[in-house]
Specification:
alpha/beta, Glutamine Phosphoribosylpyrophosphate, subunit 1, domain 1, Rossmann fold, eight-stranded antiparallel beta sheet, seven-stranded antiparallel beta sheet, binds 2-deoxy-2-amino glucitol-6-phosphate, carbohydrate derivative binding, glutamine amidotransferase
């Protein structure tokens, strides 16, 4: 995985411009970075660095009309300079950057070595420059790569002496920003903000040949095609920390406004259509990974309330047992904030082949999930750059809840006044959060002093149980601390034994009144055993906000996000870029 950013212009530009684009793509990987550009007489220059390009920018003072940069997540091959992109052919005339994974690179590499090619890296990417070597027609050769090399990837390359950029997509997104005097290449749309107002989405299995004047896109059969054009959005919010020390904290503070933008960006006609399809479905699966899966778990409470049973399945597990029950009449609600996670895309493709309708929920307009979906509901949380997801979780819940209410209009369990009531509750929560976030942040800092151990439990019941799972995930990512989310009742069936060792227990008060007795019983038992208890509720040690049951997961998750964040700060960790993690897991 990685982030690709490049430009080709009519007049020379500072090559260091590449740093701006790469910084915006840093969520895609930060193990190393590099750039290739054409200098005087179109000679190829390459520069690489180890580490995070947003902290140590590529130090180049040259100007050029064409440059191609990359920031890398080391998925195949260690983070070394040799493995940093761009990777070159034997003659050092072709420089390739890639995003994604090549499945069969070892066989291809073996074959190329037999043919006399010399490899300097242990990456999968390096097979591409060697496959392109000696080409007379780079579009044709890139199409051959796509046809013959298995995997989900996109790549771009420069060739010495050729004032063009070539771009190919075999499943990974790559877009071309159409600026006035320059064209920009990027792995995502938001990073193009300020560079271009419109962008072409390069379709899967196609190759683009880009000059400063025009863009030609070819399908696998070498026919010219017209790709989809999208507006580049999120202008005002682009990727700056706005005075916050970390993106994660900034993005938590974005939650109040993103709740509202997520609701108001949903279009009635798509909601109604999606709701009708969900209501009429033979069976409904909700799939996602990590945080998106946790949002999916909460949706089962929403849909159950309107009389619809949904099966919530990890997208990684979906093919193993759920897929066999998918056929025409099935609906897959696929959630992925990045819209690129391989497990989700793979499962969606398999389900489509069996006749399912895909309702995609994603924060990334030009993403693969958006393109693969029959109906697409945007999350509209704005760009989220910290690897630990925060505002996309709460905004995904807004989308899922709205969809469930619309589904309830079909089942007769809801009426239009429920939509208005939800909107009012959401606005009130957003307003209250805005004023209460600083206090929550202070409380999070105070209570975190109780967490000295390397492990903790987070527990709750009912609709807030998935919040415990989500909170635990945040502790793992932001604070590199083991945390386990567990149902309140289940805590008594064994896990409570460990509380003798003083493991802290964070208890999120359930919203369901039936769970009150259990809640009080668990607090007593844990305190009796000598473990520190941190309660999260409107009256708790860290105060969440009073709100409706459906919105309580939003109110309760924020204290957990803030606690995980504060523990990460206390331990001086790279909160936004946890070691070995990236924003979208492509495998
Ligand atoms: C969330 O904090 C994690 N970074 C991770 O679990 C993430 O939610 C998961 O990889 C799914 O990502 P997606 O929503 O982009 O598909």
């Amino acid at each position: 995985m990685g982030g690709i950013f490049g430009f080709i212009c009519k007049e020379p530009k500072d090559v260091s411009l590449i740093n701006i684009g790469l910084r915006r793509l840093i969520y895609r990987g930060y193990d190393s970075a590099g750039v290739a550009y054409l200098g005087n007489n179109l000679t190829l220059n390459v520069m690489k660095i180890l580490g995070n390009v947003s902290k140590t920018p590529l130090n180049i003072s040259d100007r050029s009309t064409v440059a191609l940069g990359h920031t890398r997540y080391a998925s195949r091959g260690w983070p070394t300079i040799d493995n940093a992109h761009p990777l070159l052919d034997c003659k050092r005339k072709i420089a390739v950057v890639m995003d994604g994974i090549i499945d069969d690179y070892d066989k291809i590499k073996e074959l190329l070595i037999k043919r006399g090619h010399v490899f300097v890296s242990t990456t999968d990417t390096e097979v591409i420059p060697h496959l392109l070597e000696g080409s007379k027609d780079y579009v044709k050769s890139a199409l051959e790569v796509i046809r013959e090399v298995r995997g989900i990837y996109s790549f771009a390359f420069l060739v010495e002496g050729v004032n063009k950029i070539f771009v190919a997509s075999a499943g990974q997104p790559i877009v071309i920003g159409l600026g006035e005097n320059c064209k920009f290449i990027s792995s995502d749309l938001p990073s193009l903000t300020g560079f271009a107002e419109n962008a072409l989405i390069i379709p899967e299995n196609s190759v683009a040949e880009i000059s400063s004047e025009d863009v030609k896109v070819y399908d696998v059969n070498y026919n010219l095609v017209t790709p989809l054009t999208k507006r580049v959005k999120y202008q005002e919010q682009i990727a700056e920390k706005g005075g916050f020390p970390h993106y994660m904290l900034k993005e938590i503070y974005d939650i109040p406004s993103s709740l509202i933008s997520s609701f108001s960006s949903l279009m009635e006609k798509y909601l109604s259509l999606a709701a009708m399809i969900v209501y009429g479905a033979k069976n409904v699966y909700v799939i996602g990974n990590g945080t998106s899966l946790h949002a999916g778990f909460i949706s089962s409470y929403y849909f159950s309330e309107v009389g619809i049973n949904v099966n919530v399945v990890s997208a990684a597990e979906f093919p193993y047992y759920a897929l066999q029950n998918v056929s025409t009449g099935s609906v897959i609600i696929a959630i992925s904030q990045s819209g690129e996670t391989s497990d989700v895309i793979r499962s969606v493709k398999m389900a489509k082949l069996r006749g399912a309708v895909i309702v995609g929920i994603t924060n990334s307009v030009g993403s693969r999930l958006a393109l693969e979906s029959n109906i697409y509901l945007p999350i509209t949380a704005g760009p989220e750059l910290a690897v630990p997801a925060t505002k996309t979780f709460t905004s995904t819940l807004v989308v899922l809840r709205t969809l469930s209410i619309y589904t309830g209009l079909n089942s007769g369990k809801k009426d239009r006044k429920d939509i208005n009531e939800f909107k009012e509750n959401l606005e009130e929560l957003s307003k209250n959060l805005l004023s209460r976030l600083p206090q929550m942040e202070r409380q999070a800092e105070e209570v975190i002093s109780k967490v000295e151990k390397e492990s903790l439990y987070i527990t709750s019941s009912g609709i807030n149980f998935p919040v415990a799972l989500e909170g635990a995930l945040k502790f793992k990512e932001a604070a590199l601390t083991h945390a386990e989310g567990i149902q309140l009742g289940e805590l008594l069936h064994g896990p409570i034994a460990l509380t003798n060792k003083g493991y802290p227990i964070v208890i999120v008060k359930p919203s369901e009144a039936q769970a009150d007795d259990l809640y009080n019983k668990v607090i007593r038992s844990v305190l009796d055993r000598g473990s520190p208890v941190i309660t999260v509720s409107p009256e708790g040690d860290i105060k969440s906000l009073e709100t409706s049951r459906d919105l309580s997961p939003i109110s309760n998750v924020i204290p957990l996000q803030l606690m995980a964040y504060k523990l990460g700060v206390k331990r001086n960790l790279p909160i936004d870029t946890p070691p070995g993690l990236v924003k979208a897991v492509v495998s």
